[in-house]
Amino acid sequence: MRDSTPAIRENGEPFIQTGEEHSRIFVNPIYYHQKIPNNLQAIYVRQGVYERLTQALLLLSKNYSLILYDGYRPFQVQQFLFTSFSKQIAQSFPHFTEQEIERETRKYVAFPSIEHAHLAPHLTGGAIDVTLGDLDGNALNLGTAFDEISEKFATRYFEQHPEEDWEACVHRRLLFNCMTMVGFTNYSEEWWHYDFNNVSWAGRVGAQEASYGAVEAKIQDNKVKEFRLL
């Protein structure tokens, strides 16, 4: 019996900076705006991720856009977010043990690791945090703010409680359907998080291998100065 964790066979696919060349793709690097240290002022992803975003738009009515919040995430930023969420959870649940705090934190932020068996999805360029917008790039109602700790984060929350916010339920359906139909998988605890070709994606689709390994980048002035695929 093979190990349940998919292997990684890096395919060398280009790692690119996304712009707003497409009239219905908007870039809003949220962690840069929050001034988190070492973050990026642009969104970087693998070529295949960007191509599938453009394909997803073809499945949406022309009055919708996609807004990109985060793609590739430097290791230092992953560490910062994990520590920050851990502190928030410890404050919100003072009765939690250290093990319970870590388990709850991992629901919202992947542990910062480049080991194949535990590779954080945003470190590969194969994860994207995305929402629906209008044609002016204004985010639509999907029920919660991005990265606010809430049970309403779960993608299917409003499917189970449609009376709370039917509009958000419909918008989540639209986002989920257009993204999964072009090959992405969704992380069920976060309505905005989608993966392609990384270990998380491979695990969900039952693939034996993932094609995107970790990206190690040198950051200067909030830009990727150079990188290598691990």
Automatic annotation (TrEMBL):
<keyword id="KW-0482">Metalloprotease</keyword>
<keyword id="KW-0862">Zinc</keyword>
<dbReference type="InterPro" id="IPR009045">
    <property type="entry name" value="Zn_M74/Hedgehog-like"/>
</dbReference>
<feature type="binding site">
    <location>
        <position position="193"/>
    </location>
    <ligand>
        <name>Zn(2+)</name>
    </ligand>
</feature>
<protein>
    <recommendedName>
        <fullName>D-alanyl-D-alanine dipeptidase</fullName>
        <ecNumber>3.4.13.22</ecNumber>
    </recommendedName>
</protein>
<dbReference type="GO" id="GO:0160237">
    <property type="term" value="F:D-Ala-D-Ala dipeptidase activity"/>
</dbReference>
<dbReference type="Pfam" id="PF01427">
    <property type="entry name" value="Peptidase_M15"/>
</dbReference>
<dbReference type="GO" id="GO:0008270">
    <property type="term" value="F:zinc ion binding"/>
</dbReference>
<dbReference type="GO" id="GO:0008237">
    <property type="term" value="F:metallopeptidase activity"/>
</dbReference>
<dbReference type="InterPro" id="IPR000755">
    <property type="entry name" value="A_A_dipeptidase"/>
</dbReference>
<feature type="active site" description="Proton donor/acceptor">
    <location>
        <position position="190"/>
    </location>
</feature>
<comment type="similarity">
    <text>Belongs to the peptidase M15D family.</text>
</comment>
<dbReference type="GO" id="GO:0071555">
    <property type="term" value="P:cell wall organization"/>
</dbReference>
<feature type="site" description="Transition state stabilizer">
    <location>
        <position position="73"/>
    </location>
</feature>
<keyword id="KW-0378">Hydrolase</keyword>
<comment type="function">
    <text>Catalyzes hydrolysis of the D-alanyl-D-alanine dipeptide.</text>
</comment>
<feature type="binding site">
    <location>
        <position position="129"/>
    </location>
    <ligand>
        <name>Zn(2+)</name>
    </ligand>
</feature>
<keyword id="KW-0224">Dipeptidase</keyword>
<keyword id="KW-0961">Cell wall biogenesis/degradation</keyword>
<keyword id="KW-0479">Metal-binding</keyword>
<keyword id="KW-0645">Protease</keyword>
<feature type="binding site">
    <location>
        <position position="122"/>
    </location>
    <ligand>
        <name>Zn(2+)</name>
    </ligand>
</feature>
<dbReference type="GO" id="GO:0006508">
    <property type="term" value="P:proteolysis"/>
</dbReference>
